[in-house]
Amino acid sequence: MSTQQEIPPLPIGYDGVGEVEDRILADLTARLDGSLVEELTEGGSPARLQRVELPGGAHVIKLLVDHPGAVDGHDLGSFHVKIRQIEKVRRERAVLGDVYTELSHEFYGDNWAAYTMPFYPNHDIAQPLREDEDPRHRYVPQVRTILLDLVGRGYLSERVPAPPGNIAEVHADRLIRRFRLLREYLPAELTDAERIVVNGVPCRNPLRLAETIVADPSLTAGIDPVHLHYPVHGDLNTRNILVTDEARLAGGDGGYRIIDPRGTLDPWDTAYDLSKILFSFSVWDAGLRKGFALGSVPGGEWTVGIRGGNYPNYVTAAHGLLPLLRSLPGFDELTGQDPGWESRYLLGHAFHLLAEAACRLSDIKKRTNENDSFQLSPIELATGHYLYGVLFLEDAVARLQRDGRVDHDAALAHLT
Question: What is the pTM of this model?
Fold first, then answer.
């Protein structure tokens, strides 16, 4: 049962967000007759996560205070819809009720919102890969079981015809909307140049490519979705899939939690969701944990890599995710009448990287390198995602223009 409460608004300016968050968290904890335990810092959004001990047990408070310049998806309106999506899935798809995040309380102010959910000891699905464990031991069977549930009990429970132009509307337009933030903070030679050389590959300006996709529907018509499916999530990165009980998961009886959906109530493209897992392994998760090694030379040539290198098993998982998906019972039903699915999955991966660059500039959380206390600059994190996105988008669009499809192995060769 979810309860809603109205709390008087607090004045907010960008520079005072942290202090205001602390006050709201303290106030909410007192109202719930609880005590603060620890801050949780694993998330990739600007929302604050605080573990609290309540009379009914351990919970997490998730709080978002709106601030100027937040991109869509990080804004308060999106946060409200996340709450509604949680309610929708738990109400309409009872078969996912035991694994989908719960709502306990909701709170609202004029410029902020918060909700609580029970806390479960957990680790994200990628943790075994960071520990250099053989992926076949835990990662592959666990992610396979979870995806079987999400595909069979979730996505496939609804199918509607997709309107034309989905890629332009969902991916290209998102980058166009967010590009103003990239121009504000990144060097002009990255955002305004017509040609950018990344890791030795000449690439076109990503904004121009997005505008080309919007202006020329024929470019992506052959890979636009044929059908949309039930909106299970929308932001299915690896940190939003948590293992809570390995024995139950191994037995096919839950043992995991799906948290923090995107905030979408309408039928959705599964390629968008599943390419978020690819994006987690290729760049995003290691980039947020380690930072990026960036370089440039006069003349507009740039180099980018994960500082210290990506986790080797992440690269293996990135290459192996599509074959794993193809092996799932139900995957043919999901994609069999959709010949462009795999190309859209790869194109979506490129757009996710570029959209994430803007998110890093919209996220005011402090982040440190996992190995020391070195502060990771939002500019560095944005630049790393941007350069990788430029590289992957050039590859995807060039292959679409030449071959009408995106090649999986050729695209992921840019990870080496």
Answer: 0.94
